Amino acid sequence: MATWAVGARGLRGLLLDVSGVLYDSGGEEGLGSAIAGSVQAVRRIKQSGLKLRFCTNETQATRAKFVQKLQQLGFDVSEKEVIAPAPAACRILQERGLRPYLLVHDALAPEFDSVDKSNPNCVVLGDAANNFSYENLNKAFQVLIGLETPILFSLGKGRYYKETDGLKLDVGVYMKALEYACDIEAEVVGKPSKAFFLSALADMDVEPHEALMIGDDIVNDVGGAQQCGIGALLVRTGKFRPCDEQHPEVKADGYVTNLAEAVDILLEQLQR
Amino acid sequence: MATWAVGARGLRGLLLDVSGVLYDSGGEEGLGSAIAGSVQAVRRIKQSGLKLRFCTNETQATRAKFVQKLQQLGFDVSEKEVIAPAPAACRILQERGLRPYLLVHDALAPEFDSVDKSNPNCVVLGDAANNFSYENLNKAFQVLIGLETPILFSLGKGRYYKETDGLKLDVGVYMKALEYACDIEAEVVGKPSKAFFLSALADMDVEPHEALMIGDDIVNDVGGAQQCGIGALLVRTGKFRPCDEQHPEVKADGYVTNLAEAVDILLEQLQR
């Protein structure tokens, strides 16, 4: 039996990454495709009585649209179960009285409808995909370089993700680009920031040692969760690459074929 | 008298950065505009008998077109006096039997006409400006991530440069983006690489202590030259910003209003 599973008996809450664990994004209609066994795995988690949150860095759609898409793919998920960076960023902007220049996906923009964007004094970067043109990145740069203290928020810091037709550059790459251009450090909202994981735990009323994160990103999912004292499994789906199992800094508590296998092993332990 | 000028009497060769020292790029016709006094300053250097090379990281045009543009602006400059990254990169590719995927400006591409670009096993990044689309950067990323040992050449590593309508992101920003995406380090061809400065000195048959670099980039011009034992002045034109005079790591040997002032002071010293 996998050694990580031994500790599973004290488990009360699960955190699941979404893209690469539940489904692969992309495809002609933008719907993506569910990963084999994941729809049923989510259902089994819910039936088990474990608490569950979907902890995503997805910023190509509002949370409402994102949930709609997952439901279309067959997943039992509701909006209040999804912890996502954009709503967290909106709270931070309002708390600190900041007015963003947005470089985000068109489909995410409505999430910021209630935020004052006039005369911007910071930049918010999401996974903007084709909106990452030279012109748009240059506009974001010009806002930052014109500020006495440039403030850059990045909704996640992923390197790349997997779509049905291959690996695609993620927001972290453009965060690094602007950090270098302006000689600054971005504030990351989303995984792997501690605040993000802790807000998901608080929402479930679960302690770190009672929770387990399952993701396909060795640094942002696994490393991020472990920094909060949360155990973490790496799935071999999504953007997983074999070299992730030899990552120089992060070792997962366990490696599983996919979400379905993780849930099989977990539920077997819990039912003993 | 400026203290840096005291050493000028042993001077035999000058290295001049071009964009931001001779002219500001951009504008409606893409010709840019000469910086006041620079055309005459170049002429006076040549009349003085000092050796001279133009040491540029410009990669938005072939060397031939670049020289043509400078001549149109009134500068006395010939192709053999210009040290530029693209010809240096072509030599390296041929020596090492590498076949590049090019992410460069359309106008630079002819410089690589003689290079085999089939089935690429490396990426060459130039200042591609509007060619830095999400799609193109993603293609470069997919080439790199598919290689067992990804090799990325960057033609310079500048953060930004000044065009007539404002600051623009330079190639270094996209180099950092791909470095982060693939967890690699790029090989820089051009300033501030030592090999680049030393090839310019060899071309003039001048020793480092007999040479002086004049540029508007505190890190790539001034820092790069100093690492080779070449003295270096920072001009307060081009992309110069007042905070450059308080750079935490690099101190120029002198700071001057513009090229014209530097040449005034230098020639006065040489004629004593």
Briefly characterize the structure.
The first copy, chain A, has 272 residues and is α/β, with parallel strands linked by helices.
Question: Any key phrases for this structure?
Answer:
272 residues; 33% helix; 4-stranded parallel β-sheet; 2 domains; Rossmann fold; homodimer; alpha/beta
Assign the structural class of chain A, choosing from mainly alpha, mainly beta, alpha/beta, alpha+beta, or little secondary structure: alpha/beta
The run of helices and strands of chain A is EEEHEHEHEEHEEEHEHEHEEH
Question: Which consecutive residue ranges of chain A, at least 5 long each, have pLDDT under 50?
Answer: none
CATH domain topology of the largest domain in chain A: Rossmann fold
Number of strands of chain A: 14
Q: How far apart lie the N and C ends of chain A?
A: 13 Å
